Amino acid sequence: MIGGMDSSPEHLPTTEAAVAALRALAAHYAREMEVTHDIGADQTSRRSAAGIGVTLDPDGSLPHEAHVEFGGVPRVSVRLYPEDDALITVEGVECPDIPRDDVPAFLRSVFGGLAHVTTRRFPPGHRLVVPLPGDRAHKEHIPLLLLGPWLSSRIR
């Protein structure tokens, strides 16, 4: 178990439920948070193929996307997509395709100091490793240019 996380992720059925969970995390870690919402097929980033003036999905629902920016160090942003996944960016390192239900656990690992960087001598490389519940981890390659002070301080 990772710092209070149980082995099953919390279920976040909607973008708004995920935003509420992120607000609770921001309060817990004393971080400022700014949220912008895009609602409608003509507004969301993955729905650019929607016709002009079309706001509904074919099933009649309104797709809802949110972009969340957290204050403080490390710099973290989250884009919650209507398709139940998210793009989380930590200090410029993009972590795509994170299931929406895993977003709070991912951020608890980052804000709680569990996220770290691994290095490899040959071929040279760095990876951001973010532990998740259930003995899982998200690993993302770090381009050398993005290896700033916060990431460098997390090298193991």
Average pLDDT value?
A: 84
Number of strands: 8
Helix content: 10-25%
Oligomer: single chain
| SSE order | HEEEEEHEEEH
Number of helices: 3
Uncertain segments are 1-5
Strand content: 25-35%
Cα distance spanning the termini: 21 Å
Cα Rg? 17 Å
Which descriptor suits the 3D outline?
Answer: globular
Structural class: alpha+beta
Sheet with the most strands, sense and barrel status: 5 strands, antiparallel
Q: For the largest beta sheet, what order do the strands appear in spatially?
A: 1-2-3-4-5
Description:
With 156 residues, the chain is of the alpha+beta class. Helix 1 runs parallel beside helix 2 (103-111). The strands form two sheets. It has a five-stranded antiparallel β-sheet with strand order 1-2-3-4-5, covered by helices on one side. The protein has three helices and eight strands; from the N terminus they run αβββββαβββα. Helices cover 17% and strands 33% of the residues. The two termini are 21 Å apart. A hairpin with a 5-residue loop joins strand 2 (64-70) and strand 3.
SSE blueprint:
Layout: H1 15-28, E1 33-39, E2 64-70, E3 76-80, E4 85-90, E5 93-99, H2 103-111, E6 116-120, E7 125-132, E8 136-141, H3 149-152
Antiparallel strand pairs: 1-2, 2-3, 3-4, 4-5, 6-7, 7-8
